[in-house]
Amino acid sequence: MTDLYRNQRAMRNMRRAALQRGVVAILDVGTSAVTCLVLRFDGPGALSRDDGVRPLAGHSTFRVIGAATTRSRGVAFGEIEAMAEAERAIRTVVQAAQKMAGVRVDHVIACLAGAGPRSYGLAGEVDLPEGMVREADIARVLAACEVPDYGPGREVLHAQPVNFAIDHRSGLLDPRGQAGNRLACDMHMLTVDARAIENLIHCIRRCDLELAGIASAAYVAGFSTLVEDEQELGAACIDMGGGTTGISIFIKKHMIYADSVRLGGEHVTRDIAQGLQVPCAVAERIKTLHGGVIATGMDDRDMIELDTDENARPVGERRVVSRAELIGIMQPRVEEILEEVRERLDAAGFEHLPSQQIVLTGGGSQIPGLEALAPRILGPQVRIGRPMRVQGLPQAASGPAFAAAVGLCMFAACPQDEWWDFEVPAERLPARSLRQALKWLRDNW
After folding, report:
1. What is the similarity comment for this entry (predicted)?
2. How do the residues of the chain divide into helix, strand and coil, expressed in percent and rounded to 5?
3. What is the CA radius of gyration of the chain?
4. In this structure, is the dihedral angle defined by the CA atoms of residues 437, 438, 440 and 445, taken in order, positive or negative?
5. pLDDT digit string, tens, across residues 253-262
6. In what order do the strands lie in the sheet with 182-193?
7. For residue 216, which of 342, 98, 118 has the smallest C-alpha distance?
8. What is the number of alpha carbons within 13 Å of residue 13 lying toward its C-beta?
9. Which tens digits make up the pLDDT trace of 356-411?
10. Which has the closest alpha carbon to 254: 313, 183, 171, 376?
11. For residue 192, what is the enclosing H or E element?
């Protein structure tokens, strides 16, 4: 068991110290925008240890006291590409959020959308010498999970049990105190490119901030947009960002798969810029104000003026394009993104889940007509998801583009990765299990 919980445990003390002070910042570093939310945690409930498995929505012991967003710079495909530019964007958004909150922030919890996530399923089982599941038995069964060789240059970002089984009874969320002879566990582990994580940590430290936690944007976006029934029965969250489209699949309130497609809203913008021969800034404005992916009979007569600067065009000349032409440029790229997503879902075995609900969120999900186009490719059960409301969140920050930031607030309140973290009483274990457990402790504690 090498590196399984190393990152989460290394940052846990900093996260708890930040919560003791009562204030922590949330930082969503995206390709098109950087968002910062300042949270205030009130009361001792923010620091209490969870005694069971409960939905994160039940742990909203915080309120948003500051919020800011700015155009992202130096980030491509959800990863930092130019350190100085990214640092400038992060400094700008954190200072604006601090000014609104009226407090200084020293610790941030961040999420990122890129870094090439890969999912692994782990399994382990142990005997129960006392005929009942104790906390030490859970530690032993976690230690018994064999971690695959995920290759050099990769880092474990999330690792958590998603299912327990006692003898022939499966689907247990919390087996503690239950009788049986053999305990089995299924785990989900998510690895990412270590360089992307290191660059983000270095950039945040250059901004005179300490990183107190890190999460996958696809993971936290799912928590903020999937309702409890969807998380329980099985659903996929598709976070359509600027440079990447994140994919996460949930069942029994746990993420069991995550991936990303290196295509997003910025690729649609570039297609418009190339197709209409306009700057990217103009293409983004046209996409926002007039874009769509489903053509109607009126679109041939709906004309869009391309040159908004009258000084930049010859006298008497107007460049216009019909909305039908604009849709003809946007639709193929959006279809390509959805088809890539469909391939990843098929590869993950999504069709075997009890429910095939798909929730589209992120800034790219706001393209008009997407709710009609997506069911043709992804399946009939598709909806556009907005993040859950949290106390103090401004109305301007409650749209789909802020799904990852709001989900990261819930992650800050109660990270799932810390729910199953127990000491192993060595004198009570059989020799073979003891060797495995001690190696796990030595490597990770």
Report:
1. Belongs to the FtsA/MreB family.
2. 40, 25, 30
3. 23
4. positive
5. 889 999 999 9
6. 118-127, 182-193, 154-166, 169-172
7. 118
8. 3
9. 899 999 999 999 999 999 999 999 999 999 998 788 888 888 899 999 999 999 88
10. 171
11. strand 182-193
What mean pLDDT is predicted for residues 226-234? Answer: 90
Please name every residue paired with 261 in a beta bridge, in sequence order, or none if there are none. 245
Q: Residue-wise over 184-208: b if at least 16 C-beta within 10 A, else e?
A: bbbbbbbbbbeebbebbeebbeebe
pTM for the full predicted model = 0.85
What three-state secondary structure class fits 213? Answer: strand
* 285 burial type by CB count under 10 A (0-12 exposed, 13-18 middle, 19+ buried): middle
Write down the pLDDT at residue 430: 37
252: left (phi over 0), alpha (psi -120 to 50) or beta: left
pLDDT of residue 19: 76
CA distance 28 to 404: 7
Q: Where do the domains of the chain lie? A: 118-193+426-444
Pairwise CA distance, residues 254 & 42, whole Å? 27
- The runs of H, that is alpha helices, within 308-349 are 323-347
Q: Which helix (H) or strand (E) holds 288?
A: helix 280-290
Kindly report the backbone phi and psi dihedral angles of residue 423, in degrees, each rounded to the nearest multiple of 5, phi listed first: -80, 150
Amino acid present at 428? R
For the sheet with 107-112, list strands across it: 62-71, 33-41, 23-29, 107-112, 210-216
Tell me how far apart the alpha carbons of residues 442 and 213 are, in angstroms, rounded to a whole number.
22
Query: Per the structure block, which two tokens stand in for 410?
Result: 């819930």
Look at the chain and count its residues. Answer: 445
Residue 397: predicted pLDDT: 84
Q: State residue 79's pLDDT score.
A: 92
- Is pLDDT of 315 > 50? no
| Contacts of residue 324, Cβ cutoff 8 Å, sequence gap at least 6 | 295, 299, 300, 302
Architecture of domain 118-193+426-444 in this structure: 2-Layer Sandwich (3.30)
Per DSSP, 297 falls in state T
5/343 Cα distance (integer angstroms): 30
